[in-house]
Amino acid sequence: ANDSGLASYVAGQIDRTLSWKDVKWLQTITTTPILVKGVITAEDTRLAIQAGAAGIIVSNHGARQLDYVPATIMALEEVVKAAQGRVPVFLDGGVRRGTD
Length: 100
Hints:
(S)-2-hydroxy-acid oxidase activity, FMN_hydac_DH_AS, peroxisome, (S)-2-hydroxy-acid oxidase
């Protein structure tokens, strides 16, 4: 494998078998509303809602491993527009001032 150390680390942290079907499955075993965290695109917003998510959490998980992930405040408008008021949208991140 020619992966960098970082690529190997990140790959080891992600369960590649997870899919939107897992959100649907979770709903069959609990009455707790399922919120999907880590959404930063309109496409994932629509997929999460189609899978039955009760809410969206716009998050880049702190962007600790991936410097090129957009700030959550930059993704918020796209996600809110895609949600079209169907589910609540929450923001995870460090908005310190109006220019962030």
